[in-house]
Amino acid sequence: MRKLASIQKIEWVRPIEGRDRIELAGVLGYSVIIKKGEFQPGDLCVFCEIDSVLPEKPEFEFLRPKKFRIKTMKLGTAYSQGIVFPLSILPPKKKGAYERDEDVTDVIGVHQYEPTMDKEPPELVAKQAKVRWPRFLMRFAWFRQLVLPQKKKGGFPSFVSKTDETRLQNTPWLLADKREWVCTEKINGQSGTFVLVRHKNKLPFCKDRFEYIVCSRNLRLGKPDNSSYWRVSERYKIENVLHNMIGDRDWIAIQGECIAPNVQGNMYKVSEADLYVFNLIYPTGRLGSVLAKSMIEQHGMKFVPILNEHYVLPDTIEEALADATGKSVLLPESIREGIVCRSKDGKLSWKCVSPEYLVRNDE
Per-residue DSSP letters for 154-193? Predict the structure, then answer.
């Protein structure tokens, strides 16, 4: 779960040119606007990330014009991503003191701004809409058994990690790691997972049985439908592709970003559902992006654009954010959402979202 509010340390404080009442502070890898003199380097604070929505309480009343939402701001050439408060906004702890990196999201009552939440597509939510039965009937077990949908067998495969990347700002210590990363464009769509599982036949001379699984970010999708996931599955014959690639392994999975006319405002102006693969996974782990791209493209599928096979992190987050900002390969007249970088062996990864993209596309 994302820590929307946590205890962090003020790493540095810098003046903002032309401003005498505010200054810039560093928290983790983020830059945050603060009142001048309010914090000093080394102070602990309550840090709320962008996309946080604070509760309607007197201490947060100054945020009402912004509907209590924290978002990326640009002031001159500086970006502010988050907000900090003194520890005094927290209620006394029953035992001990608040510690650095402690999650205080629930303590404060922070929730995530709904449009940025990791949620399922509307067509999937509609399928799971609840019917409002009379309350008195719901008291009876026999009635609940009759009308409530039964739990489906099998969910999201436990042996495959759900798609998620940590922001570079949350892991600033990686700046000191001067290894080469494979840098790809971050595609703005819906994450999908496609898996083929081998069920070995215990009888001699009998063929193994294979199970094909299609998932959204969090859910297994039981039957083929008109969702972008099943449409790209059919378009690229992904089940056949996985059969051709599985070899003698127990399973194989690919993960990618689905884009479609009805997805994320159709940022890439496509006329039909499409898929850009970013992960090829075997039981031994995730393959490196260069090898994965080669294998995926050999089977007629698309891989996310590789921007740099030898990317080395700069010395500062500001420089990395500048690297994340640029034109999209998929739609050159549009700014890209950011970058995703993986180690050469595919085991480590992080993302860096362009603050310029966030400012331009903020709702």
Answer: --S-TTSPPP---BGGG-GGGGG----EEEEEPP-SEEEE
Q: pTM of the prediction? A: 0.82
Number of domains in the chain: 2
Please write the tens of the pLDDT for every residue from 104-157.
999 999 998 876 655 555 555 555 444 555 655 555 566 555 655 444 445 888
Rounded Cα distance between 275 and 255, Å, is: 9
Do 234 and 309 lie in a common domain? yes
Report which of 76, 55, 285 is spatially closest to residue 160, judged by C-alpha positions.
285
8 A C-beta contact, residue 353 and residue 337: yes
Q: Is the CB of residue 281 less than 8 Å from the CB of residue 296? A: no
Show contacts of 284-287: CB within 8 Å, 24+ apart: 285/346, 285/347, 286/342, 286/346, 286/347, 287/346
What tokens does 130 get?
A: 């609840």
Q: Which residues contact 345 (CB under 8 A, 6 or more apart)?
A: 288
**Which residue range(s) make up the domain with 98?**
5-116
CA distance 53 to 49: 9
